[in-house]
Amino acid sequence: MSKRTSTAAANGAAAISDASDIKEEPTYDKQKDLLSNEMGHFSLVRAMHLADLITELNGLCGVLSIFSSMRYLIGDPNDHGNIYTALAFLPLGLFFDFFDGKVARWRNKSSMMGQELDSLADLISFGVGPAVVAFAIGIRTPLDHLCLAFFVLCGLTRLARFNVTAQMIPKDSTGKAQYFEGTPIPTSLALDGLMAYWVSNGWIHDAIPGGVWFAGTILEVHPIVVLFMIHGCLMTSKTLHVPKP
Hints:
Elements: H1 3-23, H2 30-37, H3 43-47, H4 50-73, H5 81-107, H6 112-136, H7 142-165, E1 179-181, H8 189-200, H9 226-236, E2 241-243
Antiparallel strand pairs: 1-2
Helix pairs in contact: 4-5, 4-6, 5-6, 5-8, 6-7, 6-8, 7-9
């Protein structure tokens, strides 16, 4: 082979290599570009995908649940309408939590913003919302406050860990993660259902199951709040792997 032929072959190989490098560049992210650069009116809204707007409805359900609990606190404690409304908004939030994922896959429009929105909405609907309902029905001593705060912070930590490690969890043939690390935060709806059962039986305020321990002291606490703490520990568990349905 002549020197010229050898040089041409080398140049051709380099061109092919350069072309391969070009193909491997990250794809253009229109949403990220809009969020970073666009300054027009309603630019944030125009940058959001349909799935993102549905995720916002999940967060709305959580906020309305909190407001309903607050309305119960300033109203007649024997009128349970607002507390039932607060409890009902939480599973409605779960509906939107499932639906936004289906829409994102249908439209092939997943994004980092959508992932962050999903976690923040979940924290409101399945972390803060149930804790506020528990407070409203009578789990409200100073030590109860700390226990409920522990539950919410566990949910916050679990969601932050998910956002960081989601890409590292083994995937199945369809690209979905094979399991959850720790129980997903929407499983707090089990506590939601339990509290609805208590309300239906009148087991709230002074009649909360388990009563109150160390009444009148700094250690006054409703032992039933331990259920929230256990759930918080399950959410943050690293060794507990829950298979995805």
